[in-house]
Design brief:
Blueprint (H helix, E strand, L loop, with lengths): L26 H8 L7 H13 L3 H21 L5 E5 L9 H8 L4 E6 L2 H5 L1 H4 L7 E6 L5 H8 L10 E5 L8 H13 L6 E9 L3 H11 L9 E2 H6 L5 E2 L5 E2 L18 E7 L2
């Protein structure tokens, strides 16, 4: 693979000059820590260790979410024929980022990442490392600006062609459920028929220990993340055709041959839907 990257457009990168705040933990950096990444600070490690002390299963949830993302992207490329991806709220790069998984099967795939964390921007070059046949780009924008995201993404993606919208662990940061649904609707409105929505989010109704730990974390003053009932996660797919097996706990979504033992449900649910 060669560096087939484009520099983030300063017109859509207002956070580029923001200083990374290392005095408070950040969810993207804590998640990176749980995944075994190195892009975090002592404050993030302390918060991650405290959370894991109260609920050790959080590391399994983080890694299961990443494994689901890998399987679902591979399915979209190899089975559904998708060649364009819009990954909103991508977080910090670790192993098997969206473009790496997609371009492994289809080197011509094109990927746009969206985030507004200044530390993610600082690592944009790693995210932009593409195959020569394809392309990647990074857009510094807020989840709350769907139309701006779509306009910026259109500089790299042909939004008249089917595109997979990826929202992985980001909608729980939107406190009001109806606002989160509206964001999803507005993003999908800019994508054509035959596009896909790929979501996985922390859920309620499967693991009470996880729910207690997350509720306690939300009271610490850190940026909160709200677990939602499974029917609300399913509600994000209203108007779409859900691919089998529907919205399920992520280990149960097309487990692959590398899965050891019988997959067990966890408090993280996901699914993929097709826009008619």
């Amino acid at each position: 693979m060669t560096d087939h990257a484009t520099t983030p457009d300063p017109a859509v990168a207002p956070a580029a000059k923001e200083k990374v705040d290392t005095s408070v933990p950040a969810s993207a950096r804590i998640w990176n820590y749980w995944l075994g990444g190195k892009d975090n600070y002592p404050v993030d490690e302390a918060a991650g260790d405290a959370y894991a002390g109260a609920f050790p299963g959080i590391v399994t949830i983080a890694r299961s979410s990443r494994a689901y993302l890998r399987r679902s992207i591979r399915h979209l490329v190899e089975v559904e024929g998708v060649r364009q991806f819009l990954d909103v709220g991508t977080g910090l790069p670790t192993a098997d980022n969206t473009h790496q998984v997609a371009q492994r099967s289809a080197p011509e795939a094109r990927i746009v990442y969206v985030d507004n964390d200044p530390m993610v921007l600082a690592h944009a070059r790693a995210l932009l490392y593409s195959s020569p046949e394809g392309a990647t780009a990074y857009v510094d924008a807020s989840l709350y600006e769907p139309e701006r995201i779509l306009e910026a993404a259109s500089r790299t993606l042909d939004l008249s062609r089917p595109t997979a919208l990826i929202l992985s662990g980001i909608l729980g940061h939107v406190s009001e459920y109806e606002e989160a649904r509206d964001i999803v609707r507005r993003l999908l409105a800019g994508l054509p028929s035959g596009s896909y929505l790929n979501i996985n989010e922390g859920s309620r109704g499967t693991d009470p220990d996880y729910e207690r730990a997350q509720d306690a974390y939300n009271e610490t003053g850190a940026v909160p993340y709200f677990l939602r009932p499974i029917d609300q996660i399913t509600g994000y797919f209203d108007g779409l055709d859900l691919l089998p097996p529907g919205v399920v706990s992520v280990p149960l979504w097309h487990p692959d041959d590398t899965t050891t033992g019988e997959p067990k449900p966890i408090g993280q649910h996901g699914g993929v839907g097709r826009k008619p």
